[in-house]
Amino acid sequence: xxxxxxxxxxxxxxxxxxxxxxxxxxxxxxxxxxxxxxxxxxxxxxxxxxxxxxxxxxxxxxxxxxxxxxxxxxxxxxxxxxxxxxxxxxxxxxxxxxxxxxxxxxxxxxxxxxxxxxxxxxxxxxxxxxxxxxxxxxxxxxxxxxxxxxxxxxxxxxxxxxxxxxxxxxxxxxxxxxxxxxxxxxxxxxxxxxxxxxxxxxxxxxxxxxxxxxxxxxxxxxxxxxxxxxxxxxxxxxxxxxxxxxxxxxxxxxxxxxxxxxxxxxxxxxxxxxxxxxxxxxxxxxxxxxxxxxxxxxxxxxxxxxxxxxxxxxxxxxxxxxxxxxxxxxxxxxxxxxxxxxxxxxxxxxxxxxxxxxxxxxxxxxxxxxxxxxxxxxxxxxxxxxxxxxxxxxxxxxxxxxxxxxxxxxxxxxxxxxxxxxxxxxxxxxxxxxxxxxxxxxxxxxxxxxxxxxxxxxxxxxxxxxxxxxxxxxxxxxxxxxxxxxxxxxxxxxxxxxxxxxxxxxxxxxxxxxxxxxxxxxxxxxxxxxxxxxxxxxxxxxxxxxxxxxxxxxxxxxxxxxxxxxxxxxxxxxxxxxxxxxxxxxxxxxxxxxxxxxxxxxxxxxxxxxxxxxxxxxxxxxxxxxxxxxxxxxxxxxxxxxxxxxxxxxxxxxxxxxxxxxxxxxxxxxxxxxxxxxxxxxxxxxxxxxxxxxxxxxxxxxxxxxxxxxxxxxxxxxxxxxxxxxxxxxxxxxxxxxxxxxxxxxxxxxxxxxx
Length: 755
Fold this sequence. Notes:
It is built from 22 helices and 30 strands.
């Protein structure tokens, strides 16, 4: 079927797969993904993805210049994409650029800057120095930074999707390694569907990418490097081969002669590995190799006998098969090594902010206990009591600015050093989802987390799926409130669509009260973390029914119920949780009904991985979902689960984020509960007496005071009004409740009168 595109930019990709005719084990099939069929080569994909993301995030404004340092296909890709979208394109290169590439760049309308001489950093150093000058001269210019920008490997998700769509499952992927983008990006995307995939990379002799000594003067281009690009993720590669210039160029000529594919030396090197792999593979194996570039840039090098003679390429060894070596052995000719022998590198788990109830700081310690280096990205380290004792690294940045966060991560970390990214803060779950997707890390779809955070979107998704929930109306204009109340009925609950901690959730008994409260909510532009609010109000049916939270943990879209928590609230008109008991005393059939309702709700919004905390009212008509929190429960519920069952959900969240095995098995069957300390009137907190005596009571695990003496306090209107908590554990729910009651009677919250 013919495909018609509106521009050359849209025509990028959709490259053919060709079955190669070569000797192989019985039933083995070998295919070449002809990326060289793109307008200028494989890097067209990279340029399109990087530029599109920069435009989406506002980093590259319409009509602003794009500046890149390249002497090959990346320059041509940037020229194609940038010029097709109306951007001036400046390419910084050096005298080694072949005449064909130079002619194409000029024909496309680029301004080409050729540095005249090397600096102490060689040609690369000279080019980067000139690029820096151009960036100073054009402060609104955008630099793609292909070696460190995760949008480079991210571009190859489309390539992986094309392989799966056209070929179906494969067993082995073979590709060249240069910037780390194509092979690592394709492998990472394929492994989401093919966890058993084996990945084989080819490098050049004298390249440092796989811990070989750097040998200047290598003649191969498009693969190999004298530095370690941040995008190189060697954890995605199982086996590496090295070819010297003679072997790579010979393989490239053989590819043209044997398969009629006129390609560059990167494709030739991949072809040599495909021939070898096909013979060694188990019968019936399906193998795909990525062929990056055409041969027109190599007519004066790879395909020139004079060039071979001038550089004495035939004097180098020419092996017919690879020699197997231990990783780290210096090589001079075709050799192969398993990357399982590569020394382990430090692995970082990134946290974007945290909650302030204690779980956040504990998560940092838990990560360290799993052998991970915890890194907290935060705007205000002083927000977290006990942070200094965690041993984590702290990077201070504007966590409300997604481009700034991306820039910080890109600058500080190699991709293979990042094990995962997570948060214990409700507010930053969508940010983490966006960053995890950008980096190709485990996580939920961003849309799913946004739908959970914005309860107006959640309500629509649940309605479409037929999941039980309160009647509701969405208000974005104060004038619409009275009509919404008429739809829902009185009394009704009026609340912001995207806040946390029961903040501004109010039961309204009159239309006037609802209108006034909606106006207050709509007037709030930023939340407690400085993030913009949705400026959306939900008017909901008030359900006078017991409330529970269902704690689930999802893997690959399948949710397991860890348990159900019974929740007790303060008096109306506010909805602050004052006590939790885990597990809730419920008949098994009711517990399963709650769990099944939540499973349906999670599927409706698209949650696929990690912990969720869903609040549900158990009405006479069945469960009604109040909200889904796409993160671990707050209110110390994970600690109650640990005390009751031995299962540490905080550790499991970290394991899931770092792609480590998750174990939800319980090793005991007990009960636990928490009672929050609250003020019974407005005033100033003088002290909380009796805490030591309460700690000594049977069943009491801890008594913690979180409010500071001298603070102004009030009866709880949201979770931030809590003054502390009591945790108890025991064999049964009644025993735990008795311990909490006894401790609560012992603790004396002393207030001075309100002034």
